[in-house]
Amino acid sequence: MRSKSRELIVIQSAYTYETLLKQGLLDFATSKNLNGYFARVITVHPAATLEHEINDRNRYGKLLVIQHSESFLFIEAKVGRFWHLRRFPIINFIISQIELILHLIRFSFCKSDILIRGEDPRYNGALAFILSRLNGLPLILGTWGNPDRIRKFLGKPLLPRIFGNVKLEESCERFLLKRADYVFVQNQDNWDYAVSYGADEKNIRLFRLGNAIHQSHFLAPEHRNFESRLFPLIAHQGFKICTISRLEKLKLVDHALKSFSLMKSASKSHLYIFGDGSEKGKLLELARDLGIDDRVHLLGNVNQDVLAQLLPKMDLVLAPLIGRALTEVALAARAIVAYNVDCHPEIVKHKFTGILVKYEDIIEMASAGDFLLDNFNEAQVMGSNARRFALEFMNPEKLIREQKENYNEIFEHTLWNRLKK
After folding, report:
1. In the CATH scheme, what is the homologous superfamily, with its name and number, of domain 3-213+396-420?
2. Domains 3-213+396-420 and 215-393 alike in fold
């Protein structure tokens, strides 16, 4: 099948187009064309205005279709279709989603060279299921985390506005994973979760996302030009410690603050937190309660070029649960202390590329952080090892080859099934 005809529809709710631009994260979407393997990638957000206030007119309206380039299209549905139906949010949302589905059917109907991928086995996956069945296409689901662990921590569904309780959300995941023709996972933890919810192991494929990392992070730390305008952000005496995360409860950013406060070197160190989210106010309050507010600096969301310049200036990274950013700090050759959970063990090899500590053990994280600061030469060796390992493990060219092989298999399987009919 010629690359000029292949298309991929990706249904996701992680980022809006505006956020991708502001944070320098366009690689999140553009990397999915695999250097031209797909002629066009259509990135779909089914509820792009969810964070807007109920009485904000921008929350409602028609689909937003953004032609970023010939190869990349972004489609964003709003939470409600009509302003005057804002007092009937469920009806308004359903109308908006029907419009989205009809629009996507027009893109995909009767095409043999298009694939549809839902980026979770919940709402995004449900939309992918509807479209794939209507078009006779394989159902492809991405499973990039372990919802069971998150639900246990939060005590509620990941999508409480859609699924009223945990059991309903879990039932949706089981329904979709049992019917998925292909399940993409990025690590063994994700694999185990998918199997436990009914996915057939022969349908699961490792699909690491290193090719979605911004290219600035692959530059050697010594070759990253540090802009003088950034110096005031980190112009503090002493050790520089950081964490990178969305400021949400499930990301355990408070564990980084608590561990930092327990470190014996805390009095001569500063903690920098990259990221933003709903927990910002609570984290600032926690820093005051712990007596470290003068040494905690919330830098918010910074774009990837800025992050790539700042990371090599850090002496230590605390990683309670930082996901993809773990690859970025490894590429910056930083010393890392990480909880032994999710994707962390794949990058952090204990005492070789960093230190792994027991999940949710705040005291052990603090102790390991002190060890690395007290043994700085050893920490630098671990950081260098982390960069070398990440360069190989997340090598974009290698990952693109692997992902192309997965898609070739899917296209061949789809064509064979159609020929049989």
Report:
1. Glycogen Phosphorylase B; (3.40.50.2000)
2. yes
Residue 393: C-alpha distances to residues 105, 265, 332, 400, 405 (Å)? 38, 33, 15, 12, 17
SS3 338: strand
Cβ count within 10 A of residue 192: 13
Residue 101 has pLDDT above 90, yes or no: yes
What are the residue ranges spanned by the domains of the chain? 3-213+396-420, 215-393
**Is the overall model pTM greater than 0.85, yes or no?**
yes
Name the CATH topology of 215-393.
Answer: Rossmann fold (3.40.50)
* 3-state SS assignment for residue 11: strand
CB 214 within 8 A of CB 25: yes
Cα–Cα dist 263/69, whole Å:
49
How far CA 36 is from CA of 18, 32, 114, 317, 403, in Å, comes to: 24, 9, 14, 35, 13
Beta bridge partners, 388, equal none
Q: 236-260 b/e with 16+ CB inside 10 Å = b?
A: eeebbbbbbbbbbebbbbbbbbbbb
The residue with tokens 């530059």 is 219
pLDDT in tens, 242-287: 999 999 998 999 999 999 999 999 999 999 999 999 999 999 999 9
420: pLDDT strictly greater than 60: no
Burial 337-362 (b: 16+ CB within 10 A, else e): bbbebbbbbbbbeeeebbbbbebeeb
String of DSSP letters for 85-118: GTT-HHHHHHHHHHHHHHHHHHHHTT-SSEEEEE
pLDDT of residue 4 exceeding 90, the answer is: no
Give the C-alpha distances (Å, rounded to integers) separating 392 from 43, 53, 211, 383.
28, 44, 12, 15
314 by Cβ neighbours in 10 Å (0-12 / 13-18 / 19+) ranks as: buried
Length of the chain: 421
DSSP state of 361: -
Is residue 1 pLDDT above 50, yes or no?
A: no
Read off the pLDDT of residues 115-173 as tens digits, 9 standing for 90 and up.
Answer: 999 999 999 999 999 999 998 899 999 999 899 988 988 899 999 989 989 999 999 99
